[in-house]
Amino acid sequence: MTSHKTIFWITFFLLPGMLMYEKTIAVEFDYPKPQKNEQKDDYFGTTVADPYRWMENNGTPELENWINAENQWTHTYLEKIPFRDALRERITQTINYPKHSLPFVRNGRMFYFKNDGLQNQSVLYIVDTPDAKPRILIDPNKLSDDGTVSLQHIAVSRNGKYLAYSIARSGSDWNEIFVLEVESGKTLIDRLQWIKFSGIAWERDGFYYSRYDEPPQEQVLTAKNEYQKIFYHRIGTEQNADTLIHEDKEHPLRTIGASTDKDERFLFISEGESTYGNSLVFKDLLNRNAGFQTIVPTFDSEQDIITVLDGKFYMLTDRNAPNKRLVLVDPRNPQEEHWTDVISETDSLLDSVTCIGGKFVVTYLKDAADVASIYDRTGKQLREIELPTLGVAGFSGEKDQTEYFQAFTSFTYPTVIYRCDIETGERKELFPSALNINQEDFVTERVWYSNSDGRKAPIFLTYKKGLKKDGMNPTLLYGYGGFNISMSPSFSAIRLPFLQSGGIFAVAVLRGGGEYGETWHKAGTKLQKKNVFNDFIAAAEFLIAEKYTSPQKLAVQGGSNGGLLVGAAITQRPDLFRAGVAAVGVMDMLRYHKFTIGWAWATDYGTSEDNEEMFQYLLSYSPLHNIRSGVNYPALLITTSDHDDRVVPAHSFKFTATMQEKNDGKRPSLIRIETKAGHGAGKPVSKVIDESADVWAFLMYELGMTLR
Question: What is the pTM of this model?
Answer without folding.
Answer: 0.94
